Amino acid sequence: MRLLSFIFCLAISQLAFGQKKQHIRFPPPVIEFPFTPACELLSYKNELVYTRFIYTSKGDVQPEEKTCKNISANLYLPPNVFLDPKYSRYFKAFRSKKSRGNLIIDAIGVFEDDQWGIEHGIGDLGNNKYRFILKTVLNIEPAYSGK
């Protein structure tokens, strides 16, 4: 009987340790500000919005949803907006090419036309039609591919 119990425990431990590590993407933080999906930002131009988007390794902002491809914006961090040092380390990793992935950013800001088509802050290749001006960063985390 002990041998059977030992084999059972061994089998269970092998199953537990043999599983792949999964990265769970949590929903945006809940605050007293209405959440606007990034796909709907075109309807809220020049308004203060709370949204979640992907900051790509190319330096632009895109919706998390794969279904809307028409929104790509520059990310602008005004000098008067404080970025917590725990979040700024992610951008430093991007600049030094230590990170190849993307970032998930939950933020409050203003989505608007980028009329100048020139560099407006972090990243930016100068060819996006829109920009997202950060007012408050609620959370930044690496976007894992799920592999």
Structure in words:
The chain is an alpha+beta fold. The protein has one domain: OB fold (Dihydrolipoamide Acetyltransferase, E2P) (Beta Barrel), CATH 2.40.50. It is built from two helices and five strands; from the N terminus they run αβββαββ. The protein has helices at residues 2-17, 85-95; strands at 48-55, 61-63, 73-76, 102-113, 130-143. It has a five-stranded mixed sheet, with no helix packed on it. β1 (48-55) and β2 (61-63) form a beta hairpin. The protein starts with a helix and ends with a strand. 20% of the residues are buried. Residues 15-23 and 118-124 have low confidence and may be disordered.
How many E strands? 5
The percentage of residues in β strands lies in 25-35%
Distance between the termini: 40 Å
- What is the level-2 CATH architecture name? Beta Barrel
The H-and-E topology, N to C, reads as: HEEEHEE
Secondary-structure topology with pairs:
Layout: H1 2-17, E1 48-55, E2 61-63, E3 73-76, H2 85-95, E4 102-113, E5 130-143
Parallel strand pairs: 3-5
Antiparallel strand pairs: 1-2, 1-4, 4-5
Quick rundown:
This protein is of the alpha+beta class and 147 residues long. The protein has a single domain, classed as OB fold (Dihydrolipoamide Acetyltransferase, E2P) (Beta Barrel).
